[in-house]
Design goal:
- This protein has about 260 residues and is an alpha/beta fold.
- The chain has six helices and nine strands, in the order βαβαβαβαβαβββαβ.
- Strands 3-2-1-4-5-6-9 form a seven-stranded parallel β-sheet, with helices on both faces.
- α2 links the parallel β2 and β3.
- The longest helix has 28 residues.
- It is globular.
- Bound molecules: 2-acetamido-2-deoxy-beta-D-glucopyranose.
- 2-acetamido-2-deoxy-beta-D-glucopyranose binds next to α2 and β3.
- This is NAD-P-binding protein.
- It holds the Pfam family adh_short.
Length: about 260
Amino acid sequence: MANRPILVVAGIGTGAGTGASTARIFSKAGYRVALIARDASSLQTFATSLNESGGDAHAFPISSYTHSSIHDAFTAIKQHWSGANGKAEIRVAVWNTASGVFKPFLSVTEEEIKNSADINIVGAFAFSREVILTFKENGLDAKGKRGTLLFTGATASIRGNVLTSSFAAGKSGLRALSQSLAKEFGKENIHVAHAIIDGIILTGRTKAPRDSDWAENEDVRLNADSIAEAYLYLVNQDRSAWTWELDLRPAHEKW
Ligand SMILES: *[C@@H]1O[C@H](CO)[C@@H](O)[C@H](O)[C@H]1NC(C)=O
C-alpha cells in the first residue's frame, strides 16, 4: 500500500490490553504503527511481533510523559517515516496511557495524586498538543477529516467510587479535556472521541475483581480486540455524523 497512514498509540502495557489490540487491528488495516510507552524492552518486543505479522511498527520509548519527552517522541516518529514511499502522515492517535491507585481516600499520598494528575491529565495535554499540531498540517482525507484523536476512558471517567478518588479525578480530567478538544477542533475537521470502557479486560495487570465470576466467565469481561474494532469504526466515521463519546460494556455486566 503506497499511501499508508500512521497510527500513534501511547500506553501499551503488557501487550495484552486495549493499546496493544489497537496497534494490531490498525496494523492489519494497513496503518504504520508508532508505539509510545515507558517500558522500552516490552515495547520493542511488541513492535517486533507486529512486524513479524506483516506490519510496519516502530517503538518510541519515553522515560516519562512530560511535554518535552512527548514532543521528542513525535519528532522521532516523523523522522522515522520521512523517507517512506508515498505519504506517511499521522492520521490517528490513541491516548491509552493511564495511572491509578485504588485506595481509601485517607491512604492516598500527595505523591500518588500528583502522579495521577501528571499521567492522566498533564501527559494527555502534552500528547494532545503534539497530535493537534500535527493534524493541522494534514489535508482532508476521504472522510473529510484531518485526523482522529481517541482517548481511552474508564468507569471512573464519569463515576467516583470508594477506592477511586485519585483515579477518578484523573480520568474525569481526561474526559473534560477530550470534550473541550472535540468542541474546539471539530470546526477544523479534527475528530476527537472518548471511549468509556466500563468493565474489566483480562491483562497481566488486571486489578482485583469487582466480581468473583470475572476470571472464568468471559461474558462479563470486555475483549480488547473488540474495543480496538470500535476504535477503527470511530476513525472511519465521516464528519457529518461522528461520535464524541462511546460507552463500551460487556453484555452480561452486573454493575
Ligand atoms: C519494522 O519494520 C520497519 C520497516 O521495515 C522498520 O522501519 C522498523 O524499524 C521495524 N521495527 C522493528 C521493531 O523491528
